[in-house]
Amino acid sequence: MEHEHQVHDTDDEEKWVYDSSLDHKGRVPLRSSTGAWKASLFVVAIEFSERLTYFGIATNLIIYLTKVMHQDLKTAAKNVNYWSGVTTLMPLVGAFLADAYFGRFTMILISSVVYLSGLGLLTMSEVIPSLRPCDNTASCHKSEKLHDIIFFLALYLISFGTGGHKPSLESFGADQFDEDHAQERMKKMSYFNWWNFALCSGLLIGVTVIVYVQDEVSWATADMVLTCSMALSIVLFLVGKRFYRYRVPEGSPLTPMLQVLVAAIGKRNLPHPSNPGLLYETPKSNGSRLLCHTRKLSFLDKAAILEDGNPEEDGEKVSINKKQSPWRLATVTKVEEFKLVLNLIPIWLSTLAFGLCVAQATTFFIKQAATMNRKMGNFVFPPASIYSVAAIAMLISVAIYDRILVPILRKVTGNERGISILQRISIGMVLAMVSMMISALVERKRLKVVNRGILSGSASGSSSMSVFWLAPQLIAIGIGDGFAIVGLQEYFYDQVPDKMRSLGIAFYLSVLGASSFLSSFLITIIDHLTERGGRKSWFGKDLNHSRLDKFYWVLAAINAVNLLVYAYLARRYSYKNVEKRVAVVADSSEDERHGIEMIP
Fold first, then answer.
1. Helix, strand or coil, per DSSP, at residue 71
2. Are the beta carbons of 295 and 347 closer than 8 angstroms?
3. Which residues pair with 290 in a beta bridge?
4. Cα dist. 192→225, 295, 350 in Å?
5. Which pTM value belongs to this model?
6. Rounded distance between C-alpha atoms, residue 331 and residue 300, angstroms
7. How confident is the model at residue 3 (pLDDT cuts 50, 70, 90)?
């Protein structure tokens, strides 16, 4: 039998978008009035507002916990890491629900309301007298129990809101570009760079303006500003509704993978066909993309082996008229989608060490800044504002990479992206390791200044040492984020099955979340090991009684070893192999209607 391929002439492809997306009225989208930058700019603007809100809370959280709620350094660092971990792991749940049931647009709305509820509760914990942390007297050494409950409830409501908001919003923005349209595909390659530019812009204002309001005006005022910002972002998101392209959820993405596994196990004794073209595939007529067969994980190919009769061959694809159970027979595309997910696991694991470095920037880096001289003339800026150095470094690196380096690298390498995604991530990982090495040297110098002050009888400690000694480590981690963070977003979005793209962004976020938990676990283990036999722990009651320099060297060593593993995995990695739809004129031959595209 012949396959019925949906092929459109060039003029039709330019006018309409045939990538299975719909407009706000459920029709095939008109290219000129939907999607691309006209839609994604709304999404990027909302990301700016949301990141302003998130980093306005997250960056100064350790200061709030230690100064307002009077927690010790170890407890505060663990609480920050636990909250960061939950916040970046929850997207796995939100993304699954978005991809399988609600759709990305609806999930963004639902999670935004939850997010806003958390911000409202956080504001109430500072504004309502009975919910405030203390009675504002000098004798207050511990926050009220009721405040602790309301405060952490608000924080974790924000985590749950982020769980649906973050992966759905980023993937929804990327969905606005048609990958089979040459101009839109090129624009999409810049999307993740400018997404992160907006992210860093929000971060920059969050760690400067918002943090300054928290430290110099009041925490309540800052919370009210953040709540209003989030409310406005929801309104802005709804304003862009008619410009968006929407994807209809297709049910659980896990079910087809389980079907492939069951079918492969059931046919484990069958021999592999001599020609991969004999494996079962069906034509798609709804805009979905087919994946080409790869040789890795060949055991799973048995799920696509036909068991009965002599099927008729059509080019390189084989189909049958008789309907078979999907638990017994899977298509090549479904098999390859399962392989894609399995191939992600080693890369995910090998990026956790990078996440360990990122976790230190919002915890110990900030506490270091709090002990140092933060004066600029007569102005003393908040400790968390030092993180703006990393944000500025990331902003500059992303802009230079997108506008200068990529065009040059395209000419040198012939790669549309300039360099491959995994190569980009590796550069960021190297810079993160360098950041830990610089951090160790700077912290060692800071401790020497503290000890000299103690010996001379000075009470100033390391406050005589300028906070800008931290700038090199923050610049290194900021530029590293510009390569690795953006690369991870692009990698996990592109290399998952098309129907799992919200989950793909969640996988990237889960790297940072799992690393936060891993950081807390590492602190606990090192604390236990170093205080054995009555010795002094590396994590004392404050930084001046701690040895963070040694901890940073441990992180640098972990990253050095991990880089070797990552390099091995990256060299062996096979990128997603997509059968590309090509716009043709009506009288083109069948062989000209399809192309194959490797996405590196």
1. coil
2. no
3. 579
4. 27, 31, 22
5. 0.77
6. 11
7. very low
